[in-house]
């Protein structure tokens, strides 16, 4: 009977919301529930899902908020009439790098969950520290310098762990935690990532890290397939390294491993079946590449709070400017990633500045004028083929790529002479209107610049570019962004969006659960999902990709963009020295 057919839930615990998506064995979405942290939570002083301590560049989120969100999402699925008895597998996607600090009561509290009470009521006491450092945190420069030095330099750290040291990576965050909260660290019995935190809630005990998400810590030696002892020693600070290993716990290579049955709490409270199994939850970016059978020639751009550029590749070519992770399901494959802090929120700043010029409060949160300005401005703001290009950097928060302080810079660039001239807000630029197109171009040019080593020519006479560009995340709803993304990044087959585009990571997590439970012996994720994937039902072409002429024009703009970044980096270094 169709109604008895299995369901698989994927949870996505990202920066600004928790989502739960239930799919069936044919990969079709049957239920979807969402909890928006700012709009739907009670009792937390958060903005855009996080709290900040500007003085120390700290960004963090209250863990109890996520418990409230999980209670509400499960309740919402129940209200929609979902039969939890059909759920055979649960997995999740967590915002990457965030760490959850459990106290010594945690295991007992998790095991003893009482079905009559909420998770928030029962587990708020399970943490030695009530907050999880957020990926936007920039408080760990000192620790990053130590991490970068520990194996000889950032190149060596990137070779070993897939990334040089980054403020948000969990290893530097833990080291800072040992220094800022030494007593709390001592009282911490286990540390979870946001992904393993989700799995822990459903297992009723603390779950192991996931083989892909562990690569977001700067602790895991990807080539050796184990924690790097030298780095662990550094990370444990004044404390002993064995203690840190115990806090981190074990890890399994298999991304489809059956971690155990769902805890009786969920059976009694929601009617889950005893044979519902928990599959390791992964990071939100690794989960995103599982939302479709991604080929090595395809690229995904996730337009969430962060902007990320993702590719699946068999080639491990780490570099301090990029990230490599283990693939979440398939040994021998890796995930290549670029991650920008100034993604969705930076675009919102420009949107709001444009809306403010209309002095109409009903425009709040509307993208209409932003889109109209972006589409009515010509590529690079050129008024004629020989006029200067407008180039800018829009960083309301300190950026990751390049590692640059918050700020806004505007330039004009003459592609024939290479002349690059800094502009003030009022000279040459019509602010904020010119900035709608300029911010999208700036973000996409940075992606093209940094991914060009990974793209190949898709056919005779065609320049290197992705075969397809898939847009996911909240910004994938935006057709103006899609059009400009296609013009700059190319994509010989075009720019696509998933049918449920801004729920891609929850969907990828649900597919991971399908694979974990239904795979045949030795069947890869790509084989199983590839067989069940219905292209015509699941993706939609939303913009042209490669367009001869305009792609080449943006090729010239990439050169100007690279020069502009270098100029700004030099200026900021000089400022620091002065
Ligand atoms: N129509 C739109 N055009 C552009 N951006 C949008 C649109 N709708 C939502 N967004 C952006 O999506 C972002 C949220 O994306 P989402 O993937 O849901 O976030 P996260 O996973 O980081 O919590 C918001 O910051 C907002 O800027
Ligand atoms: O830090 C990273 C990746 O390294 C971010 O991409 C986080 O994983 C949060 O993502 P979103 O909430 O924007 O989806």
UniProtKB/TrEMBL annotation:
The keyword NAD does not apply. Belongs to the FGGY kinase family. Gene3D superfamilies: 3.30.420.40. GO terms for molecular function: ATP binding; D-xylulokinase activity. Residues 299-515 form the Carbohydrate kinase FGGY C-terminal domain. Pfam families: FGGY_C, FGGY_N. It comes from Penicillium ucsense. Its main location: cytoplasm. It catalyses: D-xylulose + ATP = D-xylulose 5-phosphate + ADP + H(+). Keywords: ATP-binding, Carbohydrate metabolism, Cytoplasm, Kinase, Nucleotide-binding, Transferase, Xylose metabolism. This is Xylulose kinase.
